[in-house]
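Give me structure tokens for this 270-residue protein.
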Amino acid sequence: MTAREAAVAETSRKAGYRHLARAVLYREFLLFVRYPANAVGGIVVALFFFGVLFYGGQMVAGQALTDSIEGIVVGYFLWTLSVGAYSSISNDIGSEVQWGTLERHVMTPFGFAPVALLKGVAKIVRTFLTSTVILAVMIVITGTTLELNLLTIVVVATLTIVSVLGLGLAAGGVTVLYKQIGNWLNLLQFGFIVLISAPAFDLGWMRLLPLAHGSALLQRAMVDGIRLWEFSPIDVGLLVGVAVGYLVLGYVVFQYATRRARRLGVLGDY
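Here you go.
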């Protein structure tokens, strides 16, 4: 065993994944409190676009929009969660590449992929907090009433956006390899709108896509008041299967892309 391998092994014994998770959560907390203008700005922008959608839709569609407003509120809530989960890894890695600090992640004893994954989870925790504020304001603006069973919403929404986190991992790996792909990443975010609206198309095969099945279950939970234990085992099993499947797929793509970047010698280039 070389001196470096011995040092890495000693560091791994002293610091476990619990310490890593605590560190990335604390980092996310510091970014939130030290740059409040940016955090508040994200909430304001999200509410601005919802205001345009709601008030503009009232002028165009009138009663038709009012009759479906509960579904729109739930869908927009899920969309904000999805964008946060997806962009958490790809945007963060893009920033690390520009700052020249990406190599630090690769040199950690935990490995690059686990660090990126845990940082994505920390971003999701933050996104849940901001999206909850957005949801509360949307309910006040629209005057709608939703069933807010905390356990059901957290479990269903979390499993739903885990599949998007897998897409974010894959996008992060591609970002490491090709550096500047921001326009393509932003384009995919608008595809989330189609996936969230997929239950309205009533196409069975679309349940296997990210967000689609979870969106249907979240609509039933928040609009119809269905509790978690009232869903059929098939529905819950499919939700878990889609989440795990896309997360594993994204992790594999991330590992492959970062290893290829190392082989090509472009890991730290920009």
